[in-house]
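INFO batch 0412 | record 1 of 1 | parsing
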Amino acid sequence: MDVSNGNEDAKEVSSTTLTTSQTNLSVMQEGESQENPANYDVETSNVPMPTDQAKLGLQQRKRKRGPSKKSAKQKFAEIKSSMSNSKLFFLDSHNDKICSMAWCKDILVSGSRDTTSKIWSKCGEVKHTLGDHTSSVTGVFAIENKIYTLSYDCKLRKWDIQSGKLEHCQYLFSPITCAVALKKMILMGTDGGKVMFYCTHTSTVKWETVGHLESIISLALTEASAVSASSVPDLCVWKVDETSRLSKVNIEIPVTRPVRCMLLYQDKLYFGDDGVNIKVFDFNSESLDKLKNHDTDYGSTDSMLVYNECYLVSSSYNLDSGKTSINFRSLEDHSYLFTIICPFYGPITCMSWNTSCKTPDSLELLCGGSELGIIGQVCEKETDSLNDTENIKIIRLEALEDKHVDSLSETFSSDEEESNVSFKIPKRDESRAEEPVNSASWCSIS
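INFO prediction complete | emitting tokens
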């Protein structure tokens, strides 16, 4: 702290009896604060940290400032003008649902339930098709010029990003249902409820444990903590130590249905499910808040990401109409900003963004589900390589500005309660990543 500017506010005392060090001490005791010279806010709290939060590693940290202090409507007007030339460009994609994707500079990578992964150029040209897996590809990552693919066939494969050649294959003894990556570490969830940590530097599984009784369907990871979700539904919070070992933290997060997507940011967990709201769990206060993500009573949130450490981006699928949209909110105060209406077939189940784009006007967003597309501004000379082009609409939905309202489906906490109501809630036709094979023959001999 620079105390020279605060001496004017200190209590007046005799200069003959007060030394320079005592002057500095008196200013600190007065609690005079000064502006942080850097563009950061520092989160502090005078309340002692609970034991569980201390175990999780939550502590004082610097947070980058969010969007400038303008009204949501002013921001919307500016963004709409800057994104007026953005479109949705469809890539001639896979033969089944897109399960995972990654964006590394000008290289796009996708993994599908059709058992293949593809490496794309930014203009939509397939550079390599990686087809050695025998089941759904549930995770793809670009790490240090290598592509890592994980599959329900229990295998992890490493490929060269330029040549597309296979460099390493490892059997993991469990079907991989989902995965997330951070730097050189890949956190994986299995069909049997096991959580595994894989190090790309040593090509070894550094740690594994059974965390759930059912299949793991979603994961979130930071350097200090991780969260896993299963189909039961339930959530487990983990602390990550220096050796990449996970220890379970005794924090209970209320969930009423399987979590389709989630992410950790600062001291909060954001997760989406088949309800109309995004749930936000604050680890400091151990409280749950909700953000309205649909303008109707029935909808699902299937994917989320943090864009440029300023915006929360979430997909929205209307179960009644089948329409798909992407909502943007400020991470600083969770205020609703705008919505992109996409002519997308079915829900957007995974998203990734070009990290070289730092402002909404240069946004390039890769979206996957039953189709694969890029939202952004692509040069005219590149559009010939893309399969199809559709216009997008950037609007503000007044319903999302209001305080969240639980849908009819969110007012019940168990299947037993839902069965007692006289109406039917729309259900998605959702199949698992891999259906079990029936051992019985299709024919019989009499």
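INFO post-check: The CA atoms of residues 299 and 321 lie 10 Å apart.
INFO record closed
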